[in-house]
Fold:
Amino acid sequence: MIRAFFLSVFFLCCLSVEGQAQRRNATYNKYIKEYAPLAVEQMNKYRIPASITLAQGLLESGAGRSVLARKSNNHFGIKCHGWKGRKVYHDDDAKGECFRAYRKVEDSYEDHSKFLKNGPRYAFLFKLKITDYKGWAKGLKKAGYATDRSYANRLITIIEDYDLYKYDHKGMSKREARRWQKLLKKKPWLANPHQTYLANGLVYVVARDGDTFRLLGGEFDISWKKLVKYNDLHKEYTLETGDIIYLKKKNKKAQKPYEEYIVRDGDSMHSISQKFGIRLKNLYKMNKCDEDYVPEVGDRLRLR
Structure:
């Protein structure tokens, strides 16, 4: 069985896709708790997804810890262009650039909304659905909000790592909300999509409470029977929180530099095959043992 117990060992061996660039931390959570109501208020007023506003605020202000945010209440890195209010100067793309300064954070949020709503180059974004945070993130980068080439991906990662998309549903019209609820009955995973990771050249997800092979298959457009086969499980297996589930066939051997593995307490041939993304039958074959073999603590197993 694939237990959450093995995840700590697994992550020592693996790298995550998208790097989990923004791991959950208390500072981010505190910022979200404090400013989510303000972001929702702005969304209802200007039709900008609250998830986008929060993600930009987190990214641009370092969760409220940047000098610009602390001293000037500027949470969105908006520069002075056309600004008649108080100004401050910081090094950014160029030395000593002019940035807008605000009396309070609420003014920064309001100005950010107006900046997007009244900016001609952002007009196309307001044609998107309020729940299309990916479209908004990519559109902001396309419109030139930031020079960082990975800006859209960074926003999307923050939104998904911190479940910020849940705030966007508060901005739906009654008609949109009804449609959304009907869609969720058919595709429940849309309310909280799984984060995907990469290890051993393979994409995987970590199972959550209530997950089934059928639900995961629907979310990733993969036959649930294939998921069972890819992970060397049986169709009656009940997924447990923390299970590692690969979305494609595992490899015939571990990637370099993992040549061998010393069995630890609680290991099984299956859990080891999951840790290193190796097909179970190949792990048995490499070690010249049959399916009745039960590894003991201290045994050395070949991985390649």
